[in-house]
Amino acid sequence: MANNSPLIQGSLVALVTPMHPDNSIDWDALSSLVQYHLDQGTHGIVAVGTSGESATLSVEEHLRVVDVVVKQVNGRVPVIAGTGANSTSEAVELTQKAKDLGADACLLVVPYYNKPTQEGLYRHFMHIADAVDIPQIVYNVPSRTITDMSNETVLRLASHKNIIGIKDATGDVDRGEDLIKQAPEGFDIYSGDDVTAYDLILRGGKGNISVTANVAPKLMSDLCTLAMSQQRLKTEQLQSRLLPLHNALFNESNPIPVKWALQQMGLIQSGIRLPLTPLSENHQQPLSDALQTLGIL
Fold first, then answer.
1. pLDDT by residue (tens digit) across 132-179?
2. Domain containing 43 — which CATH number?
3. Are 296 and 248 in contact (CB under 8 A)?
């Protein structure tokens, strides 16, 4: 494990990138959102991941978001910058620049679209880890990337001092538990699936990179804390309260629902970039109901 690794655990919000109605980035709202999470007890902030619309931000915007978040957080919680790409050289460049800006760690998604082999995945992530000396969390989300990184490949990568963990967004908790049992010391497994995160943490996962935490930061912080301290009954009770919200936040592609919810809460404006579109009317009421039930709206 890298000597400079921060303690990354608990509820790690996959932060949205707030935008004005004309889809330019709302920098004031971004700073306000970061402060909101610090006040609400979020344990770490993931900037410019999938929820942050990394796919449609320019490189300049991407890096400015990281810079704003790092400066606003000012060392109070870890900041993990999304720096993945399906071009290995681009991922290296983004990761180096995020390090230069002061990010504590980077999150690197499995390359999408070009469908590398398992050996290609291994070489991709090892190349980045060799090139940039910063703690790195690999991110497996086959529902978006098509390519599924096998546990065998993950365990090969876990030997590198800079590769400190994986965000497992498969929702397959048994598979995640298998990784937890085999992983070397210093390599942690994080959930990337809000519906099953509590279960993975109860089985030894170190936290949840969460969409739901955008709108329910205190509840998600509590959930992760309970699960990490093995308070199973209280964890399951809180999870059952949160489940309707988890489900409603994925009625359409993330971050469409969560940005609509944050707009209803008055925390951001309506901007979302094409090809994503605002939340369909038929999904608005179930999400509103879930937010109201939890006292969020």
1. 999 999 999 999 999 999 999 999 999 999 999 999 999 999 999 999
2. 3.20.20.70
3. no
Cross-strand partners of 140:
168
Q: Which of 167, 198, 206, 259 is catalytic?
A: 167
Considering the candidates 139, 198, 206, 259, report the single residue annotated as catalytic. Answer: 139
Residue 35 lies in a domain: yes
The one-letter code for the residue type at 32 is S
Query: For residue 134, what are the domain limits?
Result: 10-230
Does 58 fall in a domain? yes
69-to-40, 44, 83, 279 alpha-carbon distances in Å: 16, 11, 14, 26
Is 167 among the catalytic positions? yes
CA distance 62 to 81: 9
Domain assignment present for residue 73? The answer is: yes
Mean pLDDT of the chain: 97
Are the C-beta atoms of residues 242 and 212 closer than 8 Å to each other?
yes
Tens of pLDDT, residue by residue over 228-261, are: 999 999 999 999 999 999 999 999 999 999 999 9
DSSP secondary structure of 227-292: HHTT-HHHHHHHHHHHHHHHHHTTSSSTTHHHHHHHHHTTSS-S---TTS-PPPHHHHHHHHHHHH
- Work out the number of other CB atoms within 10 angstroms of the CB of residue 44: 25
